[in-house]
Recover the amino acids of this structure.
């Protein structure tokens, strides 16, 4: 799969995930209506009474106890609607930090978050390891290219690289081995046989250097959907909590939705660097393959020079 196809597939899957999240979030808001307004006793106007026309009591009589005591005006407490449970502030989660939401999340959402965190760790581990490996391999190939460029014959290059364990040394040793095995045979097909051997070594070395980068493409294409699964699961549990609590208060639903959206955020955090790192490593691997091709060309140049020198040697001796 080419880099362009991976990027197009990643953008399409992110768009689908965003559309699904938007639909789920709008459904959550639509299913959480505002509680109906409550009417308290203070809002009911007291009836107006006419002034009393009775004569004032005489001073000789004792005032009744009801007249001496002030009237106690009590207001009844507001009661929630029928079938709705009152949620106190102590029952709502207070820690809405990423770590607090992770601790309060469902078991499935926790497993999704842990898996995405592990995928992100794998991504950065592969990036560091392959970057160091490619840097060392490019340095070795450049050093071998300098030796091949300065050598006049294949034997001279063999003296400098016969003890090395580098890709360029293996290419040169494969060419020397083919020349030794072809001793006594006609040299018409020698360069073709050496070219085939060098091509196989280039392909084997390229496969070895690109090993481990395929996991980045897998993480980049699947992590958003794994996070979306955790989000859908968390929102489903939030709706189940609404049904069990017999309340439509958005303050009760919001923490569960936030915990669910945390899974999608971590999915994007794991997927975006994976795709970017995959592209960077793909370009570095292509550059390394180009350096190997240059080394093969240098080896073939020395082989061709030695063959021509071997053919021209008898002619030069005969001319003398």
């Amino acid at each position: 799969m080419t880099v362009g196809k991976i990027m197009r597939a990643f953008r399409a899957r992110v768009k689908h995930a965003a559309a699904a999240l938007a639909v789920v979030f709008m459904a959550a808001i639509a299913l959480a209506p505002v509680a109906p307004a409550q009417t308290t006793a203070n809002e009911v106007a007291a009836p107006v009474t006419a002034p009393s026309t009775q004569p004032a009591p005489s001073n000789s009589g004792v005032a009744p106890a009801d007249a001496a005591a002030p009237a106690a005006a009590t207001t009844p407490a507001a009661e929630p609607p029928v079938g709705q449970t009152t949620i106190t502030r102590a029952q709502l989660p207070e820690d809405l930090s990423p770590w607090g939401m992770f601790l309060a999340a469902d078991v499935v959402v926790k497993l999704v978050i842990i898996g995405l965190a592990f995928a992100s760790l794998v991504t950065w581990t592969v990036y560091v390891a392959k970057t160091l490996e490619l840097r060392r391999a490019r340095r070795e190939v450049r050093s071998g290219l300098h030796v091949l460029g300065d050598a006049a014959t294949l034997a001279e290059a063999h003296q400098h690289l016969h003890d090395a364990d580098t890709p360029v040394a293996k290419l040169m040793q494969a060419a020397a081995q083919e020349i030794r095995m072809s001793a006594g045979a006609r040299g018409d097909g020698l360069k073709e046989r050496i070219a085939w051997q060098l091509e196989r070594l280039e392909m084997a070395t390229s496969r070895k250097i690109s090993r481990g980068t395929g996991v980045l493409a897998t993480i980049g294409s699947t992590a958003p959907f794994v996070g979306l699964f955790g989000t859908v699961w968390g929102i489903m549990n939030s709706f189940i909590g609404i049904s069990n609590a017999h309340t439509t208060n958005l303050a009760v639903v919001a923490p569960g939705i936030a915990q669910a959206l945390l899974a999608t955020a971590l999915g994007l955090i794991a997927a975006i660097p994976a795709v970017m790192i995959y592209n960077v490593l793909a370009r570095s691997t292509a550059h390394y393959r180009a350096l190997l091709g240059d080394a093969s060309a240098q080896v073939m140049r020395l082989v061709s020079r030695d063959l021509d020198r071997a053919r021209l040697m008898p002619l030069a001796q005969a001319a003398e």
In short: Residues 33-78, 80-86, 315-320 have pLDDT under 50 and may be disordered. Residues 3-24+97-310 form one domain. Residues 250-319 form the longest helix (70 residues). The chain has one domain: 3-24+97-310.
